[in-house]
Design a protein that fits this description.
2 helices; eight-stranded mixed beta sheet; about 130 residues; mainly beta; Metal Binding Protein, Guanine Nucleotide Exchange Factor, Chain A; three-stranded antiparallel beta sheet; about 10% helix
Length: about 130
């Protein structure tokens, strides 16, 4: 998959992904004013053009963005060495919502597909502890 930020100064190359996870955690909602539409990458991700700015948002993660236009690029899970990319970067991909995480933190003012798998924050952390 190939994508880019809003201004085009950062291009992203990533493995082909078709499933979107939504993260409703308070940090993702504060970062983007809604759930993060996340593409979990299993494989190499590369950035070309400008270098993404990184912010260490917790002990286990960094968030990346374009310093020119502010586009949210990724959530980088440090222990797993895994990029979780913003789905909006890849406009030409056909994607399906398959999972929602931190549903226990989702505010009541919006709702999404009833068919997606839903996990609480505790369930998400337990998954990565295994």
């Amino acid at each position: 998959m190939k994508g880019h930020c809003l201004c085009g100064s950062i291009e992203i190359d990533a493995p082909s992904i078709h499933n979107i996870d939504l993260c409703h955690c308070s940090m993702c909602r504060r970062w983007g004013s809604g759930p993060m539409h996340a593409l979990h990458c299993e494989g190499d991700v590369s950035f070309s053009g400008d270098t993404p700015s990184r912010y260490r948002s917790s002990e286990w993660a960094e968030r990346g963005f374009c310093r020119q236009c502010g586009t949210h690029l990724f959530y980088y899970l440090i222990p797993a060495d895994q990029y979780i990319l913003s789905a909006g970067l890849f406009q030409q991909q056909e994607l399906s919502l398959t999972q929602e995480t931190f549903v226990d933190e989702k505010p009541d003012y919006y709702s999404l597909q009833a068919e997606s798998k839903k996990m609480t924050g505790a369930e998400v952390f337990a998954q990565y502890e295994q």
